[in-house]
């Protein structure tokens, strides 16, 4: 089997697979790249994970995820993110040519009992600033991921691409960028304008495709569908991202209970098929 | 009992009460105004509903709801909205002094199988244009309600206050305005700026307070909490709205299964208490 030459399978799509399994099923589906997660990497240890990634012949398109900056212990969060930066550098170096030293950052939500959304957003910005030099020293790009506004309270206070870019542009291009995840940003009336803006300043560090399905499942965290299963005009967004100059790997990252319960071999294959059919990514 | 002098109980908060019951429990809780819904009004018929409202001594703060413009049958949607405009005028005339002839508009979602979000948004704008003169002739204000982006696919394609204002400002102030509902817009990084903008052009036609609770309940449509029960800094938003020159009634509109199951007398009382305690509305 061969999948699309720019496709990457984000490990969250096959969440319960360990790192070895994730690498294997990705290769078996003919997918040339993987979006790695820190937890399965940590479970085997970084040196072993790097060796396994090198053996797989796969590219790494990003490491998920750093961030969670908004809680009470900023120092601990920064330390954790510095470890994630080192992991990103090591894995990108171990992956096949074209691997991307990109660390995805999720801002974090409002602390318990805290209603100061603007304050939490400022803490997220300050944390990115505190990490920018560490990332630069390691050759890593910090990629700020705006999350759907329905996660603003409990997961990610950065809600729009414009907001993420407002932060990223305070730092050199190539050091701090943004993630465009269709699931999170598809609804945004300013999407086209902000993707163009991101392109002009070279800020698109990662592009992820996922669809918005209705009705929203009982656990809204798991509301994502495979490309083509929902309401998002993925081809139009992919065209915007392409025109904005992003030509890297494109991840399929789907949080979905049904997919997590299924055989990862089949999920990887199905992700590759739907990517071909509906993601609208040029070859 | 007396509630806050500017409080209005939106009927959706006591959804299963018929119109007579809704008027009675609102009065019993000392709440001076009601946000009416078309379905319970229709169940008794407009003339009877107007007479009941007049007898109650309550103000009407708005009628919910018109809109749903994005489906295949635009002509039918417009006809339905013209009826809603007439109902709004009749009820506002019957309500106590200070009643507001405001018809709340929800845009509607994407039709089945349709991924053209921009197209649906344009249809919503065109429909408002088609109704603006009817509204003017009836002395009714059309109030466009931006809905939380999590409803963009299946309920309301107008997702931000900026978008709603972009439409409203194409028409005379006092004829087309917007609804500021904290539940829908609290997350918006541009909220302060857009409320100020709405104030400058006199566009705030309705202000509704509802809180954002976590975890998001299984049915995301029912994810709203009473003032103070969630993550929204209602006092700050109320201050912005006040400074923007809106001094009308403030509705408590909560879609919540637990509230709907409870005794409406107690719900009205509890809504009045939480409004006093957490809504931050000046007297």
From TrEMBL, chains A, B:
This is Sugar phosphate isomerase/epimerase. Keywords: Isomerase. SUPFAM superfamilies: Xylose isomerase-like. It comes from the Bacteria. It comes from Amycolatopsis echigonensis. It holds the Pfam family AP_endonuc_2. One of its GO terms (molecular function) is isomerase activity. InterPro entries: IolE/XylAMocC-like, Xyl_isomerase-like_sf, Xyl_isomerase-like_TIM-brl. The keyword Iron-sulfur does not apply. Residues 27-273 form the Xylose isomerase-like TIM barrel domain.
């Amino acid at each position: 089997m061969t999948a699309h030459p720019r496709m990457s399978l984000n490990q969250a799509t096959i969440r319960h697979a360990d790192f070895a399994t994730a690498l294997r099923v990705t290769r078996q589906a003919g997918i040339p790249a993987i979006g790695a997660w820190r937890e399965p990497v940590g479970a085997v240890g970084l040196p072993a994970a790097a060796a396994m990634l090198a053996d797989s012949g796969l590219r790494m398109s990003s490491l998920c995820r750093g961030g969670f900056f908004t809680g009470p212990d900023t120092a601990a969060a920064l330390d954790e993110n510095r470890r994630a930066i080192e992991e990103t550098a090591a894995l990108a170096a171990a992956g096949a040519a074209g691997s991307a030293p990109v660390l995805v950052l999720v801002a974090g939500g409002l602390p318990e009992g805290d209603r100061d959304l603007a304050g939490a957003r400022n803490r997220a910005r300050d944390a990115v600033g505190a990490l920018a030099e560490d990332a630069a020293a390691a050759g890593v790009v910090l990629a700020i991921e705006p999350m759907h506004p329905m996660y603003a309270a409990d997961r990610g206070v950065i809600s729009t691409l414009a907001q993420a870019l407002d932060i990223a542009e305070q730092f050199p291009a190539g050091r701090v960028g943004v993630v465009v995840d269709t699931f999170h940003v598809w609804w945004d009336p300013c999407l086209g304008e902000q993707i163009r803006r991101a392109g002009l300043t070279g800020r698109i560090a990662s592009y992820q495709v996922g669809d918005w399905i209705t009705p929203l499942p009982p656990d809204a965290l798991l509301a994502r569908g495979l490309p083509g299963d929902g309401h998002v005009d993925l081809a139009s967004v992919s065209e915007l991202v392409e025109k904005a100059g992003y030509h890297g790997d494109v991840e399929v990252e789907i949080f979905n209970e049904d997919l997590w319960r299924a055989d990862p071999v089949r999920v990887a294959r199905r992700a590759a098929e739907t990517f071909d059919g509906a993601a609208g990514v040029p070859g």
